[in-house]
Amino acid sequence: MAFKPLALLCKPIAVTVGFIYPAYASYKALESKSPHAAAQWLTYWVVFSLFTVLEYFADWLISWLPLYYLLKLAFILWLQLPQTQGATVLYLKGIQPFVKKHEEEIDRALEDTWRKAEGSVFEVKSKTMGWLSGQVTNRNAPSRQASSPTLIAELMPDDVEIGVKDPEDAL
To answer: Is the pTM of the predicted complex or chain greater than 0.90?
Structure first.
């Protein structure tokens, strides 16, 4: 592919311009105590974060396009530059109206997801502690390897499938 060297050059520049510089500029804005500067960089991070998530899911489709990384770099600069204020434009015209319209649904979905994640973590923690305490009391018994399908099934929450219905079938 003829554009490979260009991608090799633009990709690290895009990371620097997209993450490193904005992180430092955000630090400077916070230290300056300027609400305008902080709002500008917070807006950038909202837009850039959504772009990064979309890019992650669409990577298989877009990364092979010629000049993609050059276009990405130009887009990142457009988002940041004070002359264009691209992040502010996208936020005010697209993101803010969409989120305002769906805010209650988003809040509910986030709360449900958080609650489920907490429950799963607690369940895995409890099963792990139970397994570990069993290992301590049964030192003379033969130990099971951490990769054992039975052990993995014991540690996973009940509503998560790991590809094998009956752990004994995997042996």
So the answer is: no
